[in-house]
Design a protein that fits this description.
single chain, 212 residues, 8 helices, 7 strands, globular, binds S-adenosylmethionine
Length: 212
């Protein structure tokens, strides 16, 4: 089950300004291969949040071939420059990202790490303005303490797939991924140090502000 009807999802995507040809190629690849990128409407929202915050330091956990990275890189570039960390454990995807993001003119902005994303974040120099998480869902709960430590006060955590095609509401779904999303949501909403909303766009984008 998609959380939005396809007509509403298409309407939201159609409102997003045209992307550069290289990003359109990335979108076409996702469609052809069934690769789960965040897509235009959610990408635009991530860009807008980072741009509005004046973010210059962004850390991505689970970056694929760089589509979500491109949205954050656009925001950071327009904010005057900084760094966007791309992390993924697939060599081919990291190489694809380097090619795409170089072509988009973000080569200088993006720092690439090949390996397990949460481990990489734990040894990265923080703090970060924005951390975006899109790794295997089973890894979400264990990532939270590391994220909390690396995000600046007032910084924003964005997490993809937090409505999980509606499966979080299916009491018969006790799969590890679904349980991990439920656990991650529970950890955030019960912690007074976070202000949390789930935006029902794409597959549910959770936004959590780290309160000072
Ligand atoms: C959903 S895709 C990322 C899509 C990307 N955020 C976008 O919208 O363009 C997740 C990627 O992260 C990788 N991945 C999953 N868990 C990971 C982890 N713990 N560490 C590093 N990479 C991971 C997956 O193999 C996959 O390539």
């Amino acid at each position: 089950m998609d959380i939005l009807s396809s007509s509403i999802a298409n309407y939201l995507d159609d409102l997003v300004p045209p992307r550069p040809a290289e990003m359109q190629k990335m979108e076409a690849y996702a469609k052809a291969e069934g690769f789960p990128i965040i897509g235009p409407a959610c990408g635009q929202l991530c860009y807008q949040i980072a741009r509005t915050m004046g973010a210059t330091r962004v850390y991505e956990l689970g970056s694929g071939y760089g589509y979500s990275t491109a949205w954050f890189a656009q925001a950071v570039k327009e904010n005057g420059g900084g760094v966007v960390h791309h992390t993924v454990w697939d060599k081919i995807l990291s190489e694809m990202a380097q090619a795409h993001l170089g072509e988009l003119g973000y080569g200088e902005l993006v720092h690439y790490t090949l390996g397990e994303a949460v481990e990489a974040l734990s040894s990265a120099d923080g703090p970060f303005d924005v951390i975006f998480m899109d790794i295997d869902k089973e890894g979400y709960p264990a990532a939270l303490p590391v994220i909390k430590q690396k995000l600046r006060p007032g910084g924003v955590l964005l997490i993809d797939n937090m409505l999980w095609s509606g499966r979080i509401l299916d009491n018969e779904d006790g799969s590890a991924a679904t349980q991990a999303i439920r656990e991650c949501t529970g950890m955030l909403v019960s912690d007074q140090h976070w202000a949390v909303s789930i935006i029902p766009i794409r597959d549910g984008l959770l936004m959590a502000t780290k309160l000072a």
